[in-house]
Task: structure prediction
Amino acid sequence: MTDAGDGTPLVGRRRERALLARALEGARTGRGGSATVLRGDPGIGKSALLDWTAVRADGDGFTVLRAAGHEPEVGIAFGALHQVLRPLWENARALPGPQLAALERVLGLREGLPPSGFMVGAAVLALLAEAARRGPVLILVDDLHWVDSSSVAVFVFLHQRIAELPVVMVAASRADGSVPEGLPATAVDVGVLSDADSRALLGHWHPGLAASTAERVMAEAAGNPLALAELPGQLAYGHRRGVLPLPDRLPLGRRLETLFARRLRSLPADARRLLLLTALDGVDAAGGGTFREPGQGCTERLLARIEASGLARLDGTGRLVFRHPLVRSAVIASPGRPNCGRRTGRWRGGCARTTRAACCTRRRPPRGPTRHSPHGFRRRGPASRCAAATRRGLCSSRRRRPWGPPPTPARGG
Result:
């Protein structure tokens, strides 16, 4: 177990740490610069790896420059670049006049028309080269998927030209974010922790946890470090000590809920309703079920929006599965979840057990007489009527409210 630099333990991650250490060593010994993109789910530990890299680089004499993308600032041109350049600005006077003027206009320090992208990239490269004369440089960019496209273009420009400089770039992006064209074609995927590493991290954060509670937390967290740290803190003392039985669904807490709340809010109500019905039906943690006719227009559009959000996907057998068990819990706990009982009169237990309410069926064959809805969903009795009513509500809502195109993500992912 190592320290990420801010007191947060970094457990495991031997492969990722070895890769980052080699990149730093190459720049320190004069072998040249490099760029790496870490990609993974929310809470998986990408920021902790960036912190570990910063501490290691600082100990090796690097100049460490940091920036982070923020969703509200994604439309502010050169916002992330401004964060990177701020510590170097005292050296900007050494730049040639045209390059200095270009940077001053980009950063809002001088009036005038914005310079060309090449001029901005060349000016930043010259500023980095000036800093690299005194020692190696490390550039860290967190939440690359929320970095403005202007800054991303400059980072791509730098990556293509730092091979001969002692400059290392490391960025972190979400798992469903694409790597910007021009950056390393193959991102380093940061996966879940192993059982042994999960147990070690859980023991560090919550040493007094009862064995039964620890096993349940590990199952719910599924190797996500933030979940391992946060989930036990939401439990009562008796739950943590194993005196009281654990609730059917462990409370997530504010930090975990916010990881997925933004994506849930970006979905239309019909798609959120479909996710909620999937989560409530859940045969297992993934909420299994098979789509009988995924080519139907209404259902296909719902699935496209859900898959684009990165919250759930169709697997090879046609089952809608959540990306992580935490997503299922977040969908159920979401305060803004749609009211599935609005169009069905009441939300009954039978409806809650219905798989995806309107477009899915469990793989086991129905027994006895069945009722066939016009959309191919098979179910008997009150649950069938509830499912059919919900399906009609989904598609009638679809007809009343035209679908818009899916939101265009930032260039960073």
